[in-house]
Amino acid sequence: MKYGYARVSTVSQDLESQLAALENQGCDVIYSEKFTGTKADRPKFKEVLSKLEEGDTLVVTKLDRFARSTVDAINTVKELFSRGVKVHVLNMGLVEDTPTGRLILTIMSGFAEFERDMIVERTQEGKAIAKQREDFREGRPNKYSKKQIQHALELLNDHSYKQVEDITGISKSTLIRAKKKLQAPSK
Asked: Cα(44)–Cα(18) distance, rounded to whole angstroms?
């Protein structure tokens, strides 16, 4: 059997291109999940690993879709090899249980881990620079202007939260947070 595994790190990312690539490879069963690769507990990945038997092939689009680090990739592939399972990484080819195959796996895993570490480092650097700005705010930017929020809060004098939400499109939870913020004693 050919088992495919697709993963993206966040709910907002799209799995479609990975799923299409796995379908094109003729995978009999495809497991997919939206789960960060930094966590060891990826339920669908654990499930596909438990299904693999001797003679089966695990197909992934890229090495970093199933491995969190070089060590993780090497250990996972070694464990699969010991069970007689083949590993096909679409952007690398079939990973063979030979000295050359293991060397290529190690090098490619190292590059994947390096790439991930560089992304994290650049993100942290960007955030550190952004924090130096006076107007920096952690988290998502406000969807509504202060004027829109103020108008919605004024509507609460004569309307329910539900009515104000229907009129303005601003959610009840956003209105409650804004109201609390206004009522909080200033520092």
From this structure: 15
Written as one letter, the residue type at 94 is L
The token pair that represents 60 in the structure block: 């992934």
Q: What is the pLDDT of residue 71?
A: 87
Cβ distance 102 to 82 under 8 Å?
no
- Plot region of 96 (φ>0 → left; ψ -120 to 50 → alpha; else → beta): beta
* Mean pLDDT confidence for 35-59: 85
Please give the structure tokens belonging to residue 113: 């881990």
Strand partners, 5: 31, 60
- CB of 80 closer than 8 Å to CB of 54: no
98-107, long-range: CB within 8 Å, 24+ apart, which pairs? 102/74, 102/77, 105/63, 105/73, 105/74, 105/77, 106/70, 106/74
DSSP class of 69: S
Q: Classify burial at 35, counting beta carbons within 10 Å of its beta carbon; exposed 0-12, middle 13-18, buried 19 or more.
A: middle
Task: Give pLDDT tens digits for 92-125.
Answer: 889 888 899 889 888 888 888 888 889 889 999 9
- Taking the C-alpha atoms of residue 74 and residue 105, their distance in angstroms, rounded to an integer, is 7
Contact between 32 and 6 (Cβ < 8 Å): yes
How many angstroms from the chain centroid is the CA of residue 32? 12
Q: Beta strand pairing status for 57-60 and 86-89?
A: parallel
Q: What is the model's pLDDT at position 40?
A: 63
Residues annotated catalytic, as ranges: 9
Angle between helix axes 161-168 and 146-155 (nearest 10 degrees) is: 140
